[in-house]
Design goal:
single chain; 277 residues; alpha+beta; six-stranded mixed β-sheet; four-stranded antiparallel β-sheet; 10 strands; globular
Length: 277
């Protein structure tokens, strides 16, 4: 039995839902049957069902406390090549305040109630009893990991868990306003030809689907944003049908997931470059 599998079973016995992480601290990708949620399960990643895929698909929603699933053949193969064990804090009734640097830790010590702390590579995880919505970037260097999210298991830490305080719940409401959006102009088609996609229903559906794809991303947000921008531009980039409002909507969705204006601009520029636009 691998060390990761043994750790996962121990956590599951304590009612902590677990999942394996591959290199890069990201979940294993969906299998072919579940790619792009073709299985119909977890339609917007808001619930852990009804997909019954035997493998560790669907990122955080795959987290389980069932020892038979955790030690089944598809999961056992994943554990053998896993780089870490992760858990779904919200599923365990927990909230993790992820402090990414020394400044964030200093802020937490001055403003948050003492609780169980777990050292990380660059900072600390502060664990509280109680679940809440997950949000990245509530303050510089501070993320909230609880429902619909995952955190790496880095050991039991030090101290006792305190009840989730209102000051932590208020962090999501006090999340800083995203930086001003950068305007990007998409060139019109050569010769000024009419866009064959210029129908309200087609264009609106495409932009709405792109917004949802970014919103639903639970890991690898940078990559999800870039691939979404690439998909939109590959369909509409040469037509001249994208407006500043459409681009603003895409940037807003990305920034809501924690992306900075610079990251949005870089992803958009890289997509334009790859498509020769």
């Amino acid at each position: 039995m691998s060390e990761h599998l043994r750790t996962a079973l121990d956590l599951a016995a304590s009612q902590i839902p677990v999942l394996p992480l591959r290199a890069g601290k990201v979940p294993f990708g969906n299998c072919r049957r579940c790619a792009d949620n073709a299985c119909g399960g977890r339609p917007n990643m808001k619930t852990p069902g009804p997909c019954v895929c035997p493998g560790p698909c669907h990122a955080w929603a795959a987290a389980t406390i069932d020892p038979h699933v955790i030690s089944s053949d598809p999961w056992r193969r994943a554990w053998l090549c896993a780089s870490a064990v992760a858990y779904h804090p919200g599923g365990a009734g927990l909230t993790v305040v992820d402090l990414d640097n020394a400044d964030a830790i200093t802020w937490a010590r001055a403003n948050l109630p003492a609780t169980q702390t777990v050292p990380t590579a660059r900072g600390e995880h502060w664990l509280y009893l109680g679940a809440m919505p997950s949000t990245n970037g509530v303050r510089p260097g501070v993320d909230i990991k609880s429902t619909m999210s995952y955190a790496r298991w880095l050991g039991p830490g030090n101290g006792s868990k305190a009840a989730l305080p209102d000051v932590v719940r208020a962090l999501t409401a006090a999340k800083p306003v995203a930086p001003a959006l950068t305007t990007v102009t998409v060139p019109a088609p050569a010769g000024g030809g009419q866009c064959r996609h210029r129908t309200p229903a087609f264009l609106e559906r495409g932009i709405a689907m792109a917004e949802q794809r970014i919103t639903d991303a639970t890991s690898g947000v940078h990559n999800a944003v870039y691939r979404t921008f690439l998909a939109v531009l590959s369909t509409h980039g040469r037509c001249g049908c994208l407006t500043e409002d459409h681009i603003t909507r895409l940037f807003t969705a990305a920034q809501t997931k924690g992306e900075s204006a610079r990251h949005c601009t870089d992803a958009w520029t890289n997509a334009l470059t790859r498509l020769g636009l």
